[in-house]
Amino acid sequence: MTKAKALVITGNGTNCEMEAAHACRLGGFDEARIAHIAELLTGEVSLDDYHFLNLTGGFLDGDDLGSAKAQANRLRYAAVEGKEERLVDQITRFIADGKLILGVCNGFQLLVKMGMLPALSGNYLNQTVTLTYNECGRFQDRWCYLKVDADSPSLYTKGIEGGVYLPVRHGEGKFLVDDAKTLDAIEGKHLACLKYSDKNYEAATMEFPENPNGSINAIAGICDETGRIMGLMPHPEAFVHRTQHPRWTREELPEEGEGLIFFKNAAKYVKENF
Ligand SMILES: NC(=O)CC[C@H](N)C(=O)O
């Protein structure tokens, strides 16, 4: 069987690469390589050799120009040394080859600013949505209840009943769209796979602090129409074991954290399809 290989990009201010690589391994990937962005730009590491690309959280370029904006331009326009291609050509090929991309927090901001989500009608380099300053005007560091849309094509949320409880930590998590048509398409195609909700996962909410940033339609995460590319503000890699839960000493919890399912689903998909 093919070895399931995950790649986690670091550098320029990411800070969740160790957790993301750990979650990939726990989830079933045979290999999880942490590569500095410079290794991709010099051609030492190629996306072609991996199945699952992780764009992790952090403070890329210190959030200057808006979170992930500079890195979005870098990934879209930078050339790969010694090759007749840009990094974005590798990324486009990666998607065309049926591979997987997960962007968490700063990585989600990066995906939307590159135009890779929601990528309506398969147009992967056209920005139609953004993530900007939290409505409350402050950085938010808290745990959130996230309702899952069971009809979403996202492969990462398959099998989740009701919702998941995960931490958020961001200053720019408010999801916005360019116009009503984009929002209608996102909702109509069930691409808004995660929404901030009440603790019973019954209804999406605009109430603070359950909705920590004022995201339109309480959107916390979206995927593309293939379900293989997903971005979310909460951190699934930060809850892979029960001791990461804020009340683990007081509540009876299963050994496995609720975020691990995202990585298990990704590994399962790779093993079944490559
Ligand atoms: N945890 C993160 O990835 C934070 C993302 C970004 N720096 C923000 O504050 O919005």
TrEMBL record:
The GO terms this record gives for MF are: ATP binding; hydrolase activity; phosphoribosylformylglycinamidine synthase activity
Q: Among the record's GO biological process terms, what is one?
A: 'de novo' IMP biosynthetic process
Q: What are the coiled-coil residue ranges?
A: none
Q: Name one GO cellular component term.
A: cytoplasm
Give the source's domain of life in one word: Bacteria
Q: Keywords for this entry? A: ATP-binding, Cytoplasm, Glutamine amidotransferase, Hydrolase, Ligase, Nucleotide-binding, Purine biosynthesis
Determine if Nucleotide-binding is one of this entry's keywords.
Answer: yes
Stored InterPro entries: Class_I_gatase-like, PRibForGlyAmidine_synth_PurQ
What protein name is recorded for this chain? Answer: Phosphoribosylformylglycinamidine synthase subunit PurQ
Q: Which organism is it from?
A: Geomonas terrae
Residue intervals passing through the bilayer: none
